[in-house]
């Protein structure tokens, strides 16, 4: 049995699974084994509110063959250097075949353990009837403006974890106020509450914020740059290279276009992305630095819950 684990935002997961299944049939790929597509819920338990499917896979020696998941999940490793114990550096040829756009080269993993399939872009949204664009600084600090009623996701949901990690690193004096904001579990619930006028501002991600032409919702793009969460393709240590065609299906241009249409951001060369998002995507700090910063945020939250 070949196990493929998909852990991406709900608005992308079904699209990705359907695409894989369709293309396996279209291409008549016979890998000699059945393919089972799993979710993190097949592996995870919860400790301190942290989804830790990866730590359970490591503990139980039950790593999926191919994984597509948040880069922040790597924070469960004792040390970033442990990637060599659990993942195969399988992507050197993949990067050659599916090159990353030049201006996003910092998202390349130079050790070839990961390939960033797409970015989830965290965004601030506001109610256009209640908030004037002139009252906004086009900054993450707008979330902390006491004049606005603001809503963010729960502590360990990707929007809050990703933006909280950025704030703790760049403006540590503001993290206490950021974490004191009202919270709900779902990014889509935030969109609905902003749209209804129950709150002025909210923190969600691009798939919910820029698709569907949502009435009365504006996007407040931060001048400091969008907080991005790479969705990484990873292969377990010792993977049989015969199953790499599954990875290549994920990288096909048609799937990239589907993801972009649904509000996500591709890093592949010669792909027509959302131009507005592209203006605010900064140089990536590297996976090691990002994972270490996420660990610091998680430690902060556990100490202050």
Task: Tell me about this structure.
The radius of gyration is 19 Å and the shape is globular. The chain folds into 2 domains: 2-118 and 230-280, Periplasmic binding protein-like II (D-Maltodextrin-Binding Protein, domain 2), CATH 3.40.190; 120-220, Periplasmic binding protein-like II (D-Maltodextrin-Binding Protein, domain 2), CATH 3.40.190. Strand 1, helix 1 (10-26) and strand 2 form a beta-alpha-beta unit. The strands form 2 sheets. Strands 1, 2, 5, 6, 7, 8, 9, 10 and 11 form a 9-stranded mixed sheet that branches. A two-stranded antiparallel sheet has the order 3-4. It has 12 helices and 11 strands. It is α/β, with parallel strands linked by helices and 305 residues long. The longest helix has 18 residues, at 287-304. The chain has helices at residues 10-26, 53-60, 83-86, 92-97, 158-170, 175-179, 187-196, 206-209, 244-250, 253-261, 275-278, 287-304; strands at 2-6, 35-38, 46-47, 50-51, 66-70, 114-127, 150-153, 182-184, 201-205, 217-220, 227-235.
- Average predicted local confidence, pLDDT: 91
Any low-confidence stretches, pLDDT <50, length ≥5? none
Q: What's the total number of strands? A: 11
CATH H level of the largest domain: which superfamily? Periplasmic binding protein-like II
The class by helix and strand makeup works out as alpha/beta
Classified by CATH, the class of the largest domain is Alpha Beta
Q: What is the CATH fold-level name of the largest domain?
A: D-Maltodextrin-Binding Protein, domain 2
**Most strands sheet:** 9 strands, mixed
Overall geometry: globular
When the domains are counted, the total is: 2
The gyration radius over C-alpha positions equals 19 Å
Distance between the termini: 41 Å
The CATH architecture of the largest domain comes to: 3-Layer(aba) Sandwich
Strand content: 15-25%
The number of helical elements comes to 12
The share of residues in helices is 25-40%
The SSE string, one letter per element, is EHEEEHEHHEEHHEHEHEEHHHH
